[in-house]
Every structure is written in C-alpha cells, then in structure tokens.
Amino acid sequence: MEAPLSTWPWEKLGSFKYLLYGLFVAKVMYSRYQEDSIKATWCLHVLILCALRGLIYQLWSSFSNMLFLTRNRRIIKQGVDFKQIDKEWDWDNFILLQALMASLAYYTFPNLVNLPIWDLNGFMVITILHVVFSEPLYYYLHKSFHGSYLFKHYHSLHHSSAIPQPFTAGHATFLEQILLGAVIGVPILGSYLMGYGSVAMIYGYVLVFDFLRCLGHCNFEIIPHQLFLAFPFVKYILYTPTYHTLHHTEMGTNYCLFMPLFDVLGNTLNPKSWDMHTKASIESGKNGRVPDFVFLAHVVDMTSALHVPYVFRSFSSTPFSTKLYMIPLLPLSFLAMLVMWLYSKPFLNTFYYLRGYLHQTWVVPRFGFQYFLPFAAEGINKQIEQAILRADRLGVKVISLAALNKNEALNGGGTLFVNKHPNLTVRVVHGNTLTAAVILNEIPKHITEVFLTGATSKLGRAIALYLCTRQVRVLMLTSSTERFQKIQKEAPAEYQKYLVQVTKYQAAKHCKTWIVGKWITPREQKFAPAGAHFHQFVVPPVLPFRSDCTYGDLAAMRLPPDVQGLGSCEYTMERGVVHACHAGGVVHSLEGWTHHEVGAIDVHRIDLVWEAALKHGLIPVSSFKD
User: Where are the transmembrane segments (predicted)?
Assistant: First the structure.
C-alpha cells in the first residue's frame, strides 16, 4: 500500500498535466477582457515565474551535459543511464504544484496583488528570514526524512537517482515538494506581512533558490577552492556540488539546504567535504581518464543536431524523429552550424562504460551536406585528422570512423590518415567489415538472387564477393563495366558467373531481395515486385514509399546488457543500439586487434568479425520492418 501523499495526483495524466496551466491562462484572459486587468496580474506573474524556473533547470541540465566543458570537473564519473532519465521524466511536477500553492496564497492574502515592483529593504528582510527560518526548517525536515519510515516511503525516491543531476533536484514525492514549497513560502509571506514585499523580491528569491538547488545537483565542481582559501567563512554559508554529492554517496551527513553552517551546528558535517572539494577543484584543470575507444561521428542535419543531451536530455534519450516543438529551435541549430564551420574542433558528446572500458563519442563539427561540397573536403579531413592525432596523443586504443567520415572519395575509407601517419599507435577502424557482416547475416539462407545498388562501393564489393561464394546470384547495378569486371575478377573462378552486371532497375523487377547502397527514389522503388524487402547501407536511409514492401534499418547491433551509463540514443537507433560501424570499433577494441581496418574490406574476415561480435555479447538487430 502506498504511503499517503507519496504519489502525484496528476501522475496518470502524463504530458496532459500541462493543460492544468491552462487554468492560469484562462484566468489571465478572462480578467483581461471581463474584469479589471490588475486582478490577473498575479496569475500572469505565476506563469512567467514557472517558465523562468523551468528555464533555469533546463540551462543547468544543458550545462551539466556539455561534456566538452565539464568532463574534467565531473564528481561522479559514471554516466546517467536510461533508467534514471525515465525516473526523472516528470521532474517538473513541483513547479506546477508550487504554482497552485501560490494561487492558494493569493486567495488567502489578496493584497499580494498590490505589491510594489521594487523594494530594496525586502531583499535584506527575505535573506534574514531565509537564514533564520528556511535553512533550519529544511535541515530539520531533511534529516527527519532520512529516518527509517520516511526514507523508505518518501525520500528514497530522490536518492534512487545514482548520479545527481539538475533534474534530480525536482525528483521527489508529492509530500516532500509540498514541504519544500513551505520552505520557499515562509520568507516570501514573512516579508509581505512585515511590509517589505515586492514583485522583484519574489522573482529574485525563487529563482536564486532554484539556481542553488541546481548547483548542488549538477555533478561537476564549478566553485574554485581558492574562494574558500581567500574567504574561509564563505564555505559555511554556501555549499558546493561536491558537498551535496557527498550527501548522495554517503548518506547521513551534509543535510543542509544551502548553508553548511547548519551541518556544523547539527554535527552532521561530512569531514571529507572540504578536502574533496579542494581535490575536485584542483583536478578540474587536468585531463581525466583516457578513453579506450572513440567513435568519431558527425552531425547529420539541422534537426538531428538538436538530438544531443545538452539540448534536451529527454529528447536525446529516445530515437530521433522530427518533433514539432523542435522547429522553433532550428534557427539556433543554423547559427551553431555557422559557428562550428568558422571555428570549432572535434568535441566530446557522450560516453558509456563497457566491462570497465571507457567508450566515448566525439563529433566532427560538420553537417552532412558539407561533406558533399568539394571546397569543404580538405577542411573536413583536417578535422578528422586532428581527432585521430589527439586520440593518438592521449593513448586511445581504437578510433572508429562513422558514416561520411570514412567516405571513399573523401579519404579512402581512412587510408589517407594511416598512410600519412604510419607510426600511429591508435588503431583507425572504419567498421565496414561488421557492417557487411550484419547485412549478410540478415539475408535468409534460402535466397538465391539479390539486387545490389552501390555495387562498386567498399560495402557493395564485399557483399557481392561474399554472396557469390554462397552461390547467390548478385545483380550488380553499375554503369561501369570496368569496375564490375575488376570486382568480378576478385571472385574465385568457379563463382564469377554468379556476379551479373545490370544497368537498369527494371532488371530487378522479379527480385524480392534488394540491397540498397545508393539512394533510390520512390520512382525507382516501383520496379521492385510486391513483397520485396529493402536491406540498406545508404545514408540517409531511403524513404519507405512502398506499402506492399518492407524496409530495413541501417545495419546495427545492440550493445551488451552490461553496458553502464548509456543514456543517449544514436540517431534513429533504439535505446542501446548502435550503428554497425560503431559496434565494429567496439569489437576491435575488445579483441585487442592491432591492425588498422581501413580501405577495402577483407572479405575473408567478415565471418571472423561477426563471430567476435557475438562472442562479446553484441546482439544482432533485425532490420525487417513493415
């Protein structure tokens, strides 16, 4: 049985809970047109304050997830996983609750609507009331909620988040947030009753309160230890992220709201607080742990550029799809593209741990369309080369190139960098061997004929050569007889007859297995017979135009279930699923292979890489989709 007030009354409403804000909007509109407009002022202020509060938490979350800025300042090194993100999905419940509490306060004290805009004395009064009432009240309540019954039925929800995050500050039960609303409300009402209230005071106090709550839960140390050396008393009146993180990792200490003075008075100060803060502050200027494996990605387009944890954490934790609420942010995405084009370098985006190994995703600051601009090729290669050389200096074992970063026309599938820097210790991997293996193992064993576009590409060549040895007839779409014959001659003599050059899509009108390595239009798809399945290794994927056919996703594999700290989806992939070229780099790293995997695919290694992937627990993801 649930404890009283442990769940939210609008829990089952999901996103429809935001309709409750419509009550405030309706009041504003009604008062504007039917009553004296001043009566709706309080309601308008509540709405504005709610929006600003949400913005503060979002900005702190974005800052916290900008690993290219905070990676060396992180206190708990593990990443935030999908489980924690889902638990904290409704972190903003407290903002709606306290908006309703503010409404109740207005109807109890209707003269609140007559507050002046500014009163300097009010800021001093509310600060005093905060120190005298809110700090000790919160300390007492917080310590009480660590008692056996209250912790089990209420406060354990807040502590169930393993990695403190700004949104963790709002992740608590209904009862706790009611009490926190009272902690915030006491100084505000006290100042009003003493005659010192003002609109600016309320805004300032509430927003600073939220700012400091986010500070304590951000999981990266931003306050320099030199501040406490110069002004020792400050450490008793302002907590730090390290200070509050200790409360989450070693419960029973550091209960204060914002002022450690009350932990000193209550004898609950963790003795490691100052030393850990000093250590975290000093080490923030040093490089952290060197990753074992790096996946070097790139931006796809303007909308997918927003699919990163430091924009909206919840959005990036689900497979990418275009959302209407992201459209207003497209100008920001365009501006970011221009800034990155003019001045930027490869940066850290996400990370996770697999069996004790640190895996990171770095991003080349270029968008997909830029890879097809002839004048941009040299600059893109310099960015990729810069990332490879940085990985080499750091001691990274394997770096895997994503999609367009290994484009044959751009750098020969990575060959350019390996030839230019023959003494690289980091292994450069294009991951196409596993990509080919995934595609080939999706093709049913009974298939005797396939139609292949992009037939003379690296992947097309490998797929054709592999299938012909299985006595599968491969219709290779290419207008270049020279390229076709070159590939055909690579096949053993007895299997060359299974490779057939075709120059038109009509040649595949009876073939139900299409392997698409070059983008095809809806018109070209019409030549496929009903019931055909489109396997694909083309970026971007083809549009699913035919309702009577099935379409596969890009080649991908699911990471082993013991992966830790993974909380972001890789483009359109499901949670825990990565592109095969990413998985290929993971396998290369786990196997400890010392060769580069660049240039042409070694067809004889396809089965070896596939078996290694299965051995390490990577799970094939079926591409068949209606």
Answer: 12-30, 42-60, 94-113, 120-141, 178-208, 324-343
